[in-house]
Amino acid sequence: ETGVTQSPTHLIKTRGQQVTLRCSSQSGHNTVSWYQQALGQGPQFIFQYYREEENGRGNFPPRFSGLQFPNYSSELNVNALELDDSALYLCASSLYTTGRNEQFFGPGTRLTVL
Amino acid sequence: QQPVQSPQAVILREGEDAVINCSSSKALYSVHWYRQKHGEAPVFLMILLKGGEQKGHEKISASFNEKKQQSSLYLTASQLSYSGTYFCGTAIAGNKLTFGGGTRVLVKP
Hints:
The complex is a heterodimer of chains A (114) and B (109).
Chain A: E1 5-7, E2 10-13, E3 19-24, E4 31-37, E5 44-50, E6 53-57, E7 64-68, E8 74-78, E9 87-94, E10 104-105, E11 109-113
Parallel strand pairs in A: 2-11
Antiparallel strand pairs in A: 1-3, 3-8, 4-5, 4-9, 5-6, 7-8, 9-10, 9-11
Chain B: E1 4-6, E2 9-13, E3 18-23, E4 30-36, E5 43-49, E6 54-56, E7 61-65, E8 70-75, E9 84-91, E10 98-99, E11 103-108
Parallel strand pairs in B: 2-11
Antiparallel strand pairs in B: 1-3, 3-8, 4-5, 4-9, 5-6, 7-8, 9-10, 9-11
């Protein structure tokens, strides 16, 4: 069973730039959720994708967008980067979208915005 | 609104017990517990579902009081490997989790 993978591991960008983060879900999982984790805080829900459609969004502006592909891998795109976007970005995969199913997190992408 | 975790931090000696609490002001469908070590991803520990069902880690126990919308995670006979930050994630519907601020646990020899 293949675990959740994310790329890149680390990324440094400057304000105003755009970034794309990638996530490969665990084998057999069709749902990917993205979270932002600021230093010393719990993860915050950004959005979720189920079978290539957005299935819920947290309190994040439209410059945070995503995609899910037919193989259930996913991308998170952030436009017009701001300093406060510096954080660990985690994706989590699960089988379906019910609260009965555990989510497994990838190792994360550490984004630094200068 | 995020759930409230208590205590914020706890220091234990190996073999001691601890309880971590997670309280929500909303009616919950499920509570998910994770442990995160520094620089690593959160690791799934347990799900507690409305109605009493549980899924998860063999050596970790937890409870969910539906009347109080509160969950407790019990660290029994703690081991050095239990050190890390524990997060509860709550779900009202589906599995879009709202996480608490975390409880830092340090287990000393």
